[in-house]
Design goal:
The chain is mostly helical. The chain is 44% helix and 4% strand.
């Protein structure tokens, strides 16, 4: 790893052992995957600075290890191997099997919808709203976001 990157490998939160398994299926075995990136809005008032920041976040070892490695699958195999270190299970080929994978179908409003869902799930789990009211409010906001 470059000198400017983290000096320690990430640890999987207090797990001593783990393994990999395909997700349950209903009719067909499909693993849905997605990716993430730091992007620049076309309406930004600081395009040069935003471009530089997005480029660094998208390509640096920091983004791959610190941001993605802790909560998502890194986009580079080399970083995944570093994050998992020597603890990769023997059946790791299952993890990298893309024969049954397809990209997540996400609308352009995905980020906004994600925040809406998170807001109402939190309100339901903390008893700020009842389940029916929370889901109805989320449905209304999600549909409004999708119509834009």
């Amino acid at each position: 790893m470059p000198a400017d990157g983290p000096s320690r490998p990430l640890k999987i939160a207090a797990l001593q052992t783990y393994n990999i398994q395909k997700l349950p299926k209903i009719q067909k075995q499909v693993t849905i995957y997605g990716g993430g990136a730091f992007v620049v809005s076309k309406t930004t008032k600081h395009p040069d600075e935003a471009y530089k920041a997005a480029t660094w976040f998208n390509t640096s070892d920091y983004s791959q290890v610190e941001l993605l490695g802790a909560s998502a699958i890194p986009s580079r195999r080399s970083i995944m191997e570093e994050v998992l270190a020597n603890d990769i299970p023997e059946n790791n080929k299952l993890f990298m099997d893309t024969e049954n994978a397809k990209p997540v179908e996400a609308p352009p409003q995905y980020s906004e919808i994600s925040l809406i869902v998170e807001k109402y799930i939190k309100a339901i789990f903390t008893n700020e709203m009842g389940i029916d009211d929370g889901l109805a409010a989320a449905d209304q906001e999600v549909n409004a976001a999708l119509s834009r």
